[in-house]
């Protein structure tokens, strides 16, 4: 076969592949879709995907099965999705903790669901009504304050470690399998404080069961404007943002990934979904797979540096 025929055949095959992917995307989904939440019920990832579920169910005319596969800071659920068929029917509702430099290549980013500041909350028994008072108390009582997280390497853990580093305080880390379990113990007074997603703790703050001190973003959060930032409240230079987003196995066809992204973004743009998320303190995001990939890369670079400096090893 001469060069001209080889080129013609290659072009024909490429065109066929593109057409096949397009047809596949148009008919997707043709059966139930599973979304794996790698944390127990009650956490930020679980709350947000359940808000999106009715909209996606209506859009796809297929059942959406949400499964909680908790453990190892989100890596049990992440490993399950990475090993699933790359056909778009198994998604991961990820967070900062679920992805590391070791496993990020196993996934194709779909869309960023929400990237919002965390809230510094304390049990009312803690004698601190501001970040400044919290730092003063922690310095007077080194190692006494216990903070909970959804696991080693989770945003709720790293946000607190960054706080410890910049404020020069010593606090005890108590890891859990998920944010929901940590919040339960925070409410019971088994731990003293958390750096937690707003959607997990603000209902308890509004009910008077927890005390909110600050948000972790560089600027005040529009959804909770009365709360100061950690930086302006006494720890200059502090900034941390937690995120949640959808991913699929790495080899999922590009056309399917694009359709999943477009549909998820459409759901995030619906007024009812936006309202429910913002009531919980989470601002809807939404972006393209390429934009989400860049976001993940930049986020990992920041936290990987902190983990190396403080000797933190994700599970």
Q: Could you explain how this protein is built, in words?
A:
With 315 residues, the protein is an alpha/beta fold. It folds into 2 domains: 31-115 and 242-310, Bordetella uptake gene, domain 1 (D-Maltodextrin-Binding Protein, domain 2), CATH 3.40.190; 117-241, D-Maltodextrin-Binding Protein, domain 2 (3-Layer(aba) Sandwich), CATH 3.40.190. It has 10 helices and 9 strands. The chain has helices spanning 3-27, 44-60, 75-82, 131-140, 155-167, 179-188, 198-206, 254-268, 271-279, 289-310; strands at 33-37, 64-68, 90-95, 107-122, 146-149, 172-175, 193-197, 211-215, 241-249. Strands 1, 2, 3, 4, 5, 6, 7, 8 and 9 form a 9-stranded mixed sheet that branches. The chain is globular and about 70 Å long. The termini are far apart. Residues 14-20 have low confidence and may be disordered.
- Total helical segments: 10
Q: Write down the CATH topology of the largest domain.
A: D-Maltodextrin-Binding Protein, domain 2
Ends apart, CA distance between termini: 54 Å
The SSE order reads: HEHEHEEHEHEHEHEEHHH
> Beta-sheet strand percentage?
15-25%
The description of the largest β-sheet is: 9 strands, mixed
The CATH architecture of the largest domain can be given as 3-Layer(aba) Sandwich
- Which residue ranges are poorly predicted, with pLDDT under 50 across at least 5 consecutive positions? 14-20
Report the radius of gyration as a whole number of Å.
21 Å
Average residue pLDDT: 91
Shape: globular
As a percent range, the share of helical residues equals: 40-55%
């Amino acid at each position: 076969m001469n060069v001209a025929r080889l080129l013609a055949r290659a072009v024909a095959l490429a065109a066929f592949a593109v057409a096949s992917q397009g047809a596949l995307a148009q008919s997707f989904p043709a059966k139930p879709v599973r979304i794996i939440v790698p944390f127990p019920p009650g956490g930020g990832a679980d709350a947000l995907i359940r808000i999106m579920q009715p909209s996606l169910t209506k859009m796809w005319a297929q059942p959406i099965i949400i499964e909680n596969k908790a453990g190892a800071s989100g890596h049990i659920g992440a490993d399950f999705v990475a090993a699933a068929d790359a056909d778009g029917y198994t998604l991961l509702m990820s967070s900062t903790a679920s992805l590391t430099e070791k496993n990020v290549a196993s996934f194709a980013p779909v869309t960023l669901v929400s990237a919002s500041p965390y809230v510094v909350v304390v049990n009312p028994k803690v004698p601190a009504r501001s970040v400044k008072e919290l730092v003063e108390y922690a310095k007077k009582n080194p190692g006494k304050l216990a903070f909970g997280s959804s696991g080693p390497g989770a945003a709720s853990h790293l946000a607190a470690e960054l706080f410890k580093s910049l404020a020069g305080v010593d606090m005890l880390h108590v890891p859990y399998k998920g944010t929901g379990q940590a919040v339960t113990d925070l409410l019971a007074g088994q731990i003293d404080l958390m750096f937690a997603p707003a959607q997990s703790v603000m209902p308890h703050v509004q009910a008077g069961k927890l005390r909110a001190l600050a948000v972790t973003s560089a600027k005040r959060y529009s959804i909770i404007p009365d709360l100061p930032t950690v930086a302006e409240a006494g720890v200059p230079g502090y900034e941390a943002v937690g995120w949640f987003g959808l991913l699929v196995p790495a080899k999922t066809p590009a056309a399917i990934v694009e359709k999943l992204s477009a549909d998820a973004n459409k759901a995030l743009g619906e007024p009812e979904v936006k309202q429910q998320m913002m009531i919980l303190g989470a601002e809807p995001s939404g972006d393209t797979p390429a934009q989400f990939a860049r976001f993940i890369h930049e986020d990992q670079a920041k936290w990987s540096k902190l983990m190396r400096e403080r000797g933190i090893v994700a599970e």
